């Protein structure tokens, strides 16, 4: 993805897993949405199409919780797992191709979740896995390398809870020389591991490969303050896609706090690309796209 394209994108997609569940799939599996790369790839295409039709400029692949370890537990060997990672990108590209005649520009972001996501125990909302930066670098390297070669427009290193993991991801991106965005999951104005956001964003400020920074899978109330910090410590474009604001403790509870109108304040504060994460639907992305179109005029 050319940097000029990256900073012109406005609307991201929403919660892919939410849409897959709405289409009747039980994702209570250690692979989560990546299970459907094996079991029902067609429904992933349909979900991507739904978000694209709603106005999303970017489809984020169903590889967030995919890992070589996780596929191995499913009985999928290394070579087959590589094919599944590539399939994630191909399915999003297929969805884009289905809509090519309408003339809109669309992109594919290869989702790279944190180490904690592969543990399938909520660790991505805590960080502090007990692994060194070197160990995390070694763990991330194989799947980043495969996804970097799979043809996506950009890598989406997302829901990063810990500065140590961000350091590992930046190291691998530097090795392979592929463009990525890096977004933290935050709570109380800090990373989930408790580090200050100025330290977190400052860590990636000098990376040539990280073309945008931001936050995702956090409450919408966290977004505004995070944009302010990101803008203060880096000149990179800022990308934000919170979840609904409901609480996750093995299941979702509480009320949604996500409204499309919030995007006006986020863009005014300096956000360049806006979308949604868990529990944000295609309908809400359609509303968001309409609001973001207003900000361009």
Keywords:
297 residues; alpha/beta; TIM Barrel; seven-stranded parallel sheet; two-stranded antiparallel ribbon; 13 helices; 11 strands; globular; transferase
Give your account of this protein's structure:
By secondary structure, the protein is an alpha/beta fold. The chain has one domain (31-296): Homocysteine-binding-like domain (TIM Barrel, Alpha-Beta Barrel). Helix content is 46%, strand content 15%. The protein has 13 helices and eleven strands. The chain has helices at residues 3-8, 16-22, 35-39, 41-54, 68-73, 78-98, 115-119, 133-148, 163-176, 197-204, 223-233, 262-269, 282-296, and strands spanning 58-60, 107-112, 154-160, 180-184, 186-187, 190-191, 210-216, 238-241, 247-248, 252-253, 271-274. The chain has a seven-stranded parallel beta sheet with strand order 1-2-3-4-7-8-11. A two-stranded antiparallel ribbon has the order 5-6. The chain has a two-stranded antiparallel ribbon with strand order 9-10. α8 crosses α9 and α10 (197-204) packs across α11. The radius of gyration is 17 Å and the shape is globular. The mean pLDDT is 94.
């Amino acid at each position: 993805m050319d940097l000029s394209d990256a900073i012109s994108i406005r609307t991201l997609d929403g919660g892919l897993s939410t849409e897959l569940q709405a289409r009747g799939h039980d994702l209570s599996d250690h692979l989560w949405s990546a299970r459907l790369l094996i079991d029902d790839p067609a429904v992933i295409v349909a979900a991507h199409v739904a978000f694209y039709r709603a106005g999303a400029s970017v489809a984020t692949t169903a590889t967030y919780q995919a890992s070589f370890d996780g596929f191995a537990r499913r009985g999928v060997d290394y070579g087959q797992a590589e094919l599944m990672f590539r399939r994630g990108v191909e399915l999003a590209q297929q969805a884009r191709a289905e809509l090519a005649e309408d003339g809109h520009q669309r992109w594919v972001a290869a989702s790279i979740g944190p180490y904690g996501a592969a543990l399938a125990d909520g660790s991505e909302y805590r960080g502090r896995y007990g692994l060194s930066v070197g160990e995390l670098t070694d763990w991330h390297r194989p799947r980043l390398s495969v996804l970097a070669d799979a043809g996506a427009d950009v890598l989406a290193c997302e829901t990063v809870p810990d500065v140590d993991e961000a350091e590992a991801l930046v190291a691998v991106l530097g090795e392979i020389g592929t463009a990525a965005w890096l977004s933290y999951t935050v709570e109380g104005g800090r990373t989930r591991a408790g580090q200050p956001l100025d330290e977190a964003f400052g860590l990636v400020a000098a990376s040539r490969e990280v073309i945008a920074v931001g936050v995702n899978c956090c409450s919408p109330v966290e977004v505004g303050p995070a944009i302010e910090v990101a803008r203060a410590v880096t000149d990179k474009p800022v990308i934000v896609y919170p979840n609904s604001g409901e609480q996750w403790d093995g299941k979702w509870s509480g009320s949604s706090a996500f409204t499309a109108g919030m995007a006006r304040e986020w863009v005014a504060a300096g956000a360049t690309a806006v979308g949604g994460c868990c529990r944000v639907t295609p309908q809400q992305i359609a509303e968001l796209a309409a609001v973001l179109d207003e900000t361009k005029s």
